[in-house]
Amino acid sequence: MNQWKNFTKGFIKENPIFVLVLGMCPTLGVTSSAMNGLGMGLATTFVLVMANIVISMVKSFIPEKVRIPSFIVIIAAFVTVVQLMMQAYVPALYKSLGLFIPLIVVNCIVLGRAEAFASKNGILSSAIDGLSIGLGFSFALVLLGGIREILGSGKIFNIALYSENYVSLIFVLAPGAFIVLGYLIAFINQIRKS
Amino acid sequence: MAQRESTFLNMVVTLLVITLIAGGTLGYVYTLTEAPIAAAKEKAQKEAIKTVLPEFDKLSAPFKVLAEKGGDSLDFFVAYKNNELVGTAIKTYTKKGFGGLVTIMTGIDKEGNFYGYQVLEHAETPGLGSKMATWFKNTEKPKQSIIGKNPKTTKFEVTKDGGDIDAITASTISSRAFLDAIVRAYNTYEKNLESNSGNKK
Predict the structure, then answer these.
(1) Is residue B43 a part of any domain in this protein?
(2) Which residues on chain B are in Cβ contact (under 8 Å) with A32?
(3) Domain total of chain B
(4) Domain range for residue B77?
(5) For a 10 Å CB count at each end of chain B, is N or C smaller?
(6) Whole-model pTM above 0.80?
């Protein structure tokens, strides 16, 4: 596969949120602001790339029947590394994402890529696949978080845009996440078709 | 390289090796990050204490005081400036938050009034209950601020319940929880004072 195509597919063509519709729990949970979305997206990207690399390296040693538990252990190890590192060096980000970091383990995007891509492809392709899907995920989270933040708290990346008296609170709450996500999926699908 | 067969021995050995490597790596990262994590936590706590008390130059080691009406004990930090008491910081909590546990660092000055507070951990609704981080500090709106007040002269309950503090708009439960934590800190503080002066006699 052409590596450039491999890299760009995560943004629109195989975007994990808008097209594959995977990993909805952290998507709906953390996107109350653009910053949270970015932090979660980058943490997931790191785990995706590292897990994809390691899994594509060890794939031929792992007997078929125990591949899922093996993948999960590898993914969980990387997630815990991210969690400890964040807690130690960026405590502010850890404070706002803390609850969702362990959830990366069960984020089906990571296991999905391990199973669908890394266990069948070489190291370089797998790393690029992880980066592509991870950045596509981050892009989608920032977009979703940004729209919710603008409508729901009148800010973007914590910079006030207009008075809080005109915001519509529903967008920072769970129903707002579903509404915005629905419109975004429709919009992206329209783009893909044309 | 061909895929290894799924024989019993192969599976056991593979899983063993993978978990061993993962465990070893995690242990190593843990020892690496243990000190920075502890330092970051302590720094966050110190910063919180600084914002809730008047200027001080010495802080007592934290000690635990059993909360009034039972429950978990609260952490007390006594602050001094030039060896004179300037206030007490108390790490208090409530379990009545809309999202469960809320922990708050509060500061009581030497006159026994609230000097400041900082919400340390909460799981309240963003945009609603999470406003407690600043709402009760707004001294421009005297009815919603708790700064410079104490439960002896002001009724620390939301106005809906007949108290003197304005609740956060559309977040009465979070407001009640906040005041619950604050009152718990104050009552424990009072109790601690009493028992201390009792000891001296």
Answers:
(1) no
(2) 126-127
(3) 1
(4) 53-196
(5) C
(6) no
